[in-house]
Write a structure and sequence with these properties.
Elements (H helix, E strand, L loop, with lengths): L11 H8 L6 H9 L8 H11 L4 H5 L3 H5 L6 H19 L12 H12 L6 E7 L5 E9 L9 H10 L4 E7 L9 H16 L3 E9 L2 E4 L9
Parallel strand pairs: 3-4
Antiparallel strand pairs: 1-2, 1-3, 4-5
Helix pairs in contact: 2-3, 8-9
Length: 228
């Protein structure tokens, strides 16, 4: 069925205008970016095929190379570039520094929710620092390292210097485990304890170290590996 033959409230653009973006399925949102279908499939069908080829996950679509996108029927170079640009904008928006977040970092769950959009689907480890004021409100956030699947380096001295420069009273460290298990390894534990000692000499608190793995997390503070 062609898009023009659908009811007005079933067409992705019209549905979004009337009910908002959150009322649309993933396929419908992708269809808006794709704009047109083929002689055999309407644009929603093309979007569904795209999702199917990515295992039904948006992360799979986001990770597709332009060449792979172009292999899907109904998607040429122009549409492939549009999709890649949209996902890249989403990644950049999620990783933009935050100045004075309105939510205090009062639990590892808040850290998890804030960082999951950035870390979900990564095939390598990244380590981020959240700099907090005395009331535990975030004053800045930045990536400090990016490495292979098995290692992320914590430079305790460099982190302490940056925290002092930002006049942070405390920090939260967070990194991902692409393996899918959030349980810390020996290297994670040793590096965290070393960072805690270094920060303590500067009068800065290590509030927590949160490891994120897909849809789960591990909190060093909850497990009392660090003293808050």
């Amino acid at each position: 069925m062609k898009i023009k033959e659908l009811c007005m409230d079933e067409r992705p653009r019209e549905k979004m205008m009337q009910k908002g973006a959150d009322s649309l399925s993933n396929a419908e949102l992708l269809a808006i970016l794709l704009r047109t279908g083929t002689g055999k499939m309407n644009v929603i069908d093309v979007a569904r095929e795209l999702l199917k080829s990515a295992g039904g996950k948006l992360n799979g679509v986001a990770d597709m190379a332009l060449e792979r996108l172009c292999e899907i029927e109904g998607i040429g170079p122009g549409k492939a570039v549009t999709l890649a640009a949209a996902f890249e904008l989403g990644r950049r928006a999620a990783s933009e520094p935050i100045v004075e977040s309105r939510t205090a970092i009062s639990s590892p769950k808040i850290v998890f929710r804030a960082m999951l959009p950035i870390m979900r689907g990564l095939d390598h480890e990244e380590c981020w620092v959240l700099y907090l004021n005395r009331a535990n409100y975030m004053i800045a956030r930045e990536k400090i390292s990016s490495g292979g699947i098995d290692s992320t380096t914590l430079d305790s001295r460099a982190i302490a210097i940056k925290a002092l420069e930002k006049r942070a009273s405390g920090i939260v460290i967070t990194h991902n485990h692409p393996s899918g298990s959030a349980i810390p390894g020996t290297a994670d534990i040793n590096a965290t304890k070393q960072l805690e000692m270094t920060l303590k000499t500067c009068g800065i608190s290590l509030i927590d170290h949160v490891i994120i793995a897909e849809d789960s997390y591990y909190s060093f503070a909850d497990e009392e590996v660090v003293k808050c």
